[in-house]
Amino acid sequence: MSGLNLTVGVGAAAALYMIRLRRAAYTTLAQRVRPPMLEKRPKMVPFGAVNGQNRGPNPMKPILYLEDPYSYVRDDSRKNEEVLEHLRKENAYTDLKTKHLANVRANIYDELLSHVQETDEDYPYPHGPYLYYNRTVKGSSYTYHCRKAKSANASEELLLDENEIAKGKNHCDVSSVSPSPDHRYLAYMVDFNGYETYTGFVKDLKTGEMLPDRIENISSLRWGKDASVLYYATQDEAHRQNKLWRHTMGSKDTDELLYTEDNDIYSAYFQKSRSGKYMFLMSSSSETSEVSFIDLDNPSQPPQMIAKREKGLIYGVDHYDDCFYIVTNKDKATNFKLMKTPVASPSPEHWEDVFPYDESIKVDDIDCFKNFMVMEGRQGGYSQLWIIRTEGGNKHSRHQIAFRESSYTVSGSINRDFDTDKFRFVYSSMTTPWTTFDYDINTRESTLLKEKPCPNYDRSLYKSERLEVKASDGTMVPISLVYRADLRSQDRQPLHLYGYGSYEIPIDPSFVSSILPLLDRGVIYAIAHIRGGGEMGRTCKMTCEGRSAGGLLMGAVLNMRPDLFTAAIAGVPFVDVMNTMSDASIPLTTGEWEEWGNPNEKAYFEYMLSYSPYENVKQQAYPNMLITSGLYDPRVAYWEPTKWVAKLRDEKSDQNEVLLKMDLSSGHFSASDRYHYLKEKAFDLAYLLDHLDAIKNDDKKKPEAAAKL
């Protein structure tokens, strides 16, 4: 027996030695491989009044220049083989540098999937004689759109199978799925590459056949008063939604152009009143809006203006009875207020307050039903809902829907019926999964309809907090935290900080199952509810993350205080601010001048140059960084993160790694396939856990799912 034990011991030792040898060889190889390098081809980029180019209303003279060594990486066609080959090399390098995390990724993927109810069904919403809902099926990547008649024991009708549409496609985004007012037809749009340019389709739900009314290159789609008309929008070459159209079903004639927005700063939109009586034609910039309307009972009449654009005046409209109700910042109402005006005389001189302006309430939207209205807004930093009733004459009453938790987010859900006494909303907190309620406006009671299932989740293990920290300029910045209570330590814990802080878009404290692998390994997850820069303090191991405009935040923070973080993830980061915002041919640029500034104008040039992440990369140590992007992203073009990575590698003075992960078949919003999306999340989480030293021993074991990744 002793000899047998000796043999097993020697064999185990030999196997262990070989494993260590292979690991050492791999580590040496990974360390030896150099990252892909972009050749520098300096170009002097002009800022100011360039002949023949749209540089904004007040471009500066003389022209100023900035040198960009990687300007040539931009290729609007996405077909330049030199650039594509470089991106493939970047992906190969990232794969090599993260190969040691393969088992961790596979385990995290399994863990993420364990929190997903793969076969699930939304709570049906009433719409006319039907109950509509979406469902998913285990193993199917996309959604099934269904309905049932309201009658007892009605059978399901499958309206649209996104899985069939997505067959053979790398990307498939189905949007604006909407039954016609008579419920005979289904309109929807599809984008097959992530560039957010769609094709509109109409399906006959009675015969199952596709109608010939196929509309190419659109960005929105809505039914008119009935099933005879569709309204849609198209974009210009810079991806700005600028034209509004009307299509008569079955007509081969040219569609009718209703409105063209010629001002590059503005974008045009449709919105149909819940009453179904009016179609609003809206044009807006970041600071100004203008709305006209079409009476859908007399659609041939020209649109009627509500209030012409006036610099700084923002307003939105819905219809109730014989009035338009208006959310606006008129009369210096910084946080907006609710006003109304007769439909017969909608101009601003007839607008009157519904309630006195209250600076403590930020009014976001008004939703008008037949017998009541719902005002959505914010108070005390949290989203809120108010029910409004008319009391005769000009009198109105309102009450607020109350919630038990102190920190939460709430918003309206799908409410298709106009004549109803119930309002459907969704609710969540950092520890409560998204939950659907019906609120009875007469009894003032909320009925829980469905909580989105999250298998293998015990909410009693988790705790959320809200605190405030003082930024360097003295501003108090709210921070939302969530963590595993049983893993909370008085000592410093690893922390992952998320931030966005742009476009007045809040990152509310809601439930996100994809952060559970962090929490279950002792990582604290924090959201900084910022309005500007500032330091968030220190911890022993801290990572940070931001996407899109939040990626700009990451770039600026890492230039200022790279020492605070062990690692950072910047997703589709808007980092090449100066070059992008100077060029009106780049999608969305002109509409963003009021948000970020126009570097072609002297008043903004120096200020924007002071914070643009790309221009402010310098010779200093940076933390480990993972930067993700999509080749077909129209919002933050692939060349921005690609150039940023090259400049970081060229300037930084440390041995930390800067990795670029480029999805060559998607756009701004990542994978459309829900399983592929989870794999991407597993990649990010494994990267973070590695740099937070929070990987458990079991995470390194090879699971059955390893081959899937």
Automatic annotation (TrEMBL):
Residues 541-693 form the Peptidase S9 prolyl oligopeptidase catalytic domain. InterPro entries: AB_hydrolase_fold, Pept_S9A_N, Peptidase_S9_cat, Peptidase_S9A, Serine_Peptidase_S9A. Gene3D superfamilies: alpha/beta hydrolase, Prolyl oligopeptidase, N-terminal domain. Belongs to the peptidase S9A family. It comes from the Eukaryota. Residues 66-451 form the Peptidase S9A N-terminal domain. Its EC number is 3.4.21.-. It is an enzyme of class 3 (hydrolase). SUPFAM superfamilies: alpha/beta-Hydrolases (SSF53474), Peptidase/esterase 'gauge' domain (SSF50993). GO terms for biological process: proteolysis. This is Prolyl endopeptidase. Serine peptidase whose precise substrate specificity remains unclear. Does not cleave peptides after a arginine or lysine residue. Regulates trans-Golgi network morphology and sorting by regulating the membrane binding of the AP-1 complex. May play a role in the regulation of synaptic vesicle exocytosis. The keyword Protease applies. GO terms for molecular function: serine-type endopeptidase activity. Keywords: Hydrolase, Protease, Serine protease.
